[in-house]
């Protein structure tokens, strides 16, 4: 239940301190799209939860990397994500952080634009609502805190080591949800992973930035052909680095620009990540100068913000009890143990620079087995690091899907308490029924009848 602002302040002031040796039911690694949902979902079910987040706020790529448009709620006219992610979206809208869902042409200036529904939002408002969700849920939290190791006993993680400005803490739990996007706990626990090692291809990174004083209506009124011609001109001049002229509006005159693009760098290599932030900011300087000079609607623009963390599309993924494939996405394979629905689009940045972008013809099911592995019994991996092929990952990595997976992961972890904290022992029917009772749409049969056919 939503609290008033004085109660929020009281909860923030009264947050219980987290100390080395503390023991929780569930520790959630990362408070991004999926981790925020996992922590709140588990805490609402009565579990004692700690969420540990590297940055200073929750929301992950949507806030710290300013990826300010939610995709993955809708496939065509079918809304396939409800529950906690929809509550989050509705609360952002109610706070004035978004005007709501809109029809949009993704990658409009490229050779293969795609029509879909998106929800543009103000990432700063999303931070406020995320705080409220955490505080209302009663979860404990640590921000500016990085999980840097895991203690393993047999086939269970018993504790994680957390680096903070005050030194290293070790915190313990019965069950762990890895929502770090980079499978941090799974890696430290020795779970099998895909995409590890030098030379692995990663989708390109993008550093997002915000321009103020933009005439958004004027930019929107440009034809696709005009946008494409200007994009190609900018690339030829070395001032644009991608033909995607993607903007997400905040109010009438601020544009969050998703236009930089860096290939061939690995976010898990600290030297590459350092290069990426430098090169990303170089690109932002060039792009914003080009837009001001050349793009209708941008003549008066000013650089208002650069995301505090470059956007990372892909790193490593779990090799779980099931590997979701492109065929499962495209053919909507039915899974008895489905716990979330994906919508797409399938959005893969190929090694040769091509963008593979298309919408599956209907929502698709994601089985709980993509989040678990035989090697670590009390670990659930959620968000973009679930067990999926590169292509399937391209279809499940959108924020609404990551959030739906996060709600499911939190629910599963909370239920695991009755099964010796063995997440693989929890009957999937219990998770599905609980999720449905919380307003989520864990499988195609949970869609309202009139939309089930997409
Ligand atoms: C450039 C770019 C553009 C995108 N465009 C869109 C789009 O238009 N619409 C859309 O819906 N999606 C888009 N996505 C995809 C989407 O943003 C991500 O895939 C999604 O946020 C993944 O959710 P997640 O919870 O797995 O990871 P994240 O949201 O990234 O959250 C992971 C969290 O874990 C934290 N963390 C990491 N390591 C540790 C650690 N060791 N200890 C503690 N915390 C840790 C991070 O700080 C972060 O907050 C885009 C992504 C990128 C990078």
Automatic annotation (TrEMBL):
Pfam families: FAD_oxidored
SUPFAM superfamilies, alphabetized: FAD/NAD(P)-binding domain
Coiled-coil ranges from the UniProt annotation: none
Assigned keywords, A-Z: 4Fe-4S, Iron, Iron-sulfur, Metal-binding, Oxidoreductase
Organism superkingdom: Bacteria
InterPro entries for this protein: FAD/NAD-bd_sf, HdrA-like
Designated name of the protein: FAD-dependent oxidoreductase
